[in-house]
Amino acid sequence: xxxxxxxxxxxxxxxxxxxxxxxxxxxxxxxxxxxxxxxxxxxxxxxxxxxxxxxxxxxxxxxxxxxxxxxxxxxxxxxxxxxxxxxxxxxxxxxxxxxxxxxxxxxxxxxxxxxxxxxxxxxxxxxxxxxxxxxxxxxxxxxxxxxxxxxxxxxxxxxxxxxxxxxxxxxxxxxxxxxxxxxxxxxxxxxxxxxxxxxxxxxxxxxxxxxxxxx
Length: 215
Known about the structure:
This protein is mainly alpha-helical.
């Protein structure tokens, strides 16, 4: 499905999430972004909650089966919590709760995780804005330096759950092969950004895919 290998997707995202304290903030706060969205859907169009859950898990699993299933387990818990809350609160309180949770989650991610803990990434030899990942629209699959299909773009926009799920798997000593590939790819991304280049290069990705297929 994805033209760009999963380790490259993860490498780009983790380039801007290297500090352990920022990673911890994201592990704690990011699930509430999805949870608050579930609350809105549950409050306004409950029949869409199950398709949203299944669709999210399937999409992530198509890109990375083990990471997608790990993230999916958290999604199931969040969905059950949203359904439980919907049985105790009416529509307006649910929407208010969702708004507060969404705002608090993003405030924690931006002002604590990124602004306080995450170091700047050098671009063209100079420290860049901490919001570079969004400013250059990497989160939308733009400016990669390689051709991406629609699935790649949606995947990068939704890459955080996969990154966080795999961070936990890595912490438990699992998926060491993927962890090593991500580390290697991240070093390449950082080096290219420091040189003022795009995160990836078409000819490099094509050569790597050719080598993998030949093996």
